């Protein structure tokens, strides 16, 4: 279960009601017209689970994910959160960046005879991904004509050049719907196929996302609309949205959020104005010792969303030891780290509120597949709503094209 | 060698010359009056290396660092950068956060008989650090009266409660100078002692820092003053400073930078005004697929510093394989990932410049101890200069105190 609490000031007015109902209508239209497809993934992706029932992966011990951006961030987010709570989950290696050191180190860890390879690219021609694919084929001596074909899973758009490659070699192929963008694709084949094979309960993740999505479209999640409206209204003043997550295992989720938020909303709007909100991911309590000072005393250009996990399920008591010199910390003896980290979050939120910085909180009763699915749907719906209010195309990324053109030219294409 | 290039527009005027010379004078005074001590660490910390010559740590295989914020970020930054290039370096485990899952997982990895423990806290009473210390003592059954005393290294301020603990049990103790703040302490005993024992060449790191520091105080690094002035001048408009590092191993350095920058400059100035600059750390090429869109088309409230490594020293060629369907990527075959990632940085910087976003670049000819030392000194000096221009106390963090008071109250102290 997810509990949402808001502490920022939001009083609705007839004017704002209009903004919110317009956004709600627009998002409904995106869904119903099937112009945007991610809303339907929680049910649509069940078909992939059916297909996987007929592929024997019991002998597999290792998954190698070759993908970057929307083709890896969501997978990592779920993997990091659920791994500590899942038994018998397979090892996952990630080959993302064009960093020669990282690639070398990861190549050394691949055990081909126990591995499956997932090549993930929506367009099919992502330069990091195709270059790493070639490197893996050469390094692991992958025989695309023979038995190794069964190790290769291609996840891409129907009709892409990578799909052509998959069909030519008769590899496993799963498609991303045309109307689902990379950063909204974690619940498509992109995330569902490798994570299910790895041993995660994707059906429950989809169910969690479905429940929240349905509830939202049935008008029962007004808080999401209100938050979107608050963020939109205050976008000029509070241009930075901090996601302050109180658990180390949430770090990859914050990275997924940064892509979703930054790339969806950082746009030129229909009137030619540059708009957008800047996402920042922090981890508590660590970043209380780093970024917090700036939130409290720096310019009031931020608001903060806290995420906490009520029950870590694996707790640890602080021993009842009194150490010479530091007896003044004895008051904490016998309490648990689970309680400490949550108390730290509460205290930080209170001190941030005292500094008149807007905050809200998402509390997970525990880390579970359903909760993660719901959280993914929550952030995606919030992004879509703010995108409508900003009057931008939430789903494209025209700004990154020029860099690619320059790169290809510089590399002699 | 570090090469600094700037692409932002900065034309000096007599007015600005005054701002810069005032900042330079103020920083010189901080150093000469010994009010601020980090400037002298590159020479002062050599004494720790002398002491370590007489402590036999050859049998040690593992270091356990117990510390958070300024007591771990700098150590991790250096460890991550140099580990791939250093042979026979010892394993380092970090116990930082109050996250019960992470603490449990890390405890399981400790092999006491092969380990040294470093308890690092400037104040000596950091709640995460003392709580974890107690947990480690109980879990590893550390005998503070017997032989285990030789495994315990305490790094703290002279006269702190933790120093009292160290002296009571006759543990190894190293002190942080009073006039060196936590986030400026990486080149004090905080970083020097554990990293030297781990097997890193701290003498060369100190030398790199010393060379840059001396050169700066001899007036030969005008670019640092100019950059500080540019950042100060444009602070309202460009309130976000992005550090875009093109190497996975630079991620921990960006986290160290975020603390240094955010906590030093996010302050109420002498006139009662909230000032500060918001630091964001990105990793290329990964974040081209995430945050770049926002930089290019979003609000022009950012500037970007790129860091590149000219020669990764361990390179990898993209194999000359033509894959059916994706032949259009063949143009890159035979080139290297080292070249690709640097070409990606160049292309991104060009596209960011085209969008009229101010940029500059720090280019390391390679990852070396000297270069890392110089980079640390560079960011610290830059921070001090901007702090003077902002008219804040760069070295305190009053904003985080309230949270501590609330926490202690809530935990029943």
What's this entry about, in short?
Two copies of one chain form a homodimer. By secondary structure, chain A is of the alpha/beta class.
- The assigned structural class of chain A equals alpha/beta
Largest β-sheet summary of chain A: 5 strands, mixed
State the low-pLDDT regions of chain A, or none.
Answer: none
Bin the helical content of chain A: 40-55%
Q: So how many helices of chain A?
A: 15
What's the CATH class of the largest domain in chain A, please?
Alpha Beta
Quaternary status of these chains?
homodimer
Q: How would you describe this structure to a colleague?
A:
Two copies of one chain form a homodimer. Chain A has 413 residues and is of the alpha/beta class. Chain A has two domains: 2-32 and 205-398, 3-Layer(aba) Sandwich (Rossmann fold); 38-200, Glucose-6-phosphate isomerase like protein, domain 1 (Rossmann fold). The first copy, chain A, contains 15 helices and twelve strands. The interface between A and B is large, with 119 and 120 residues.
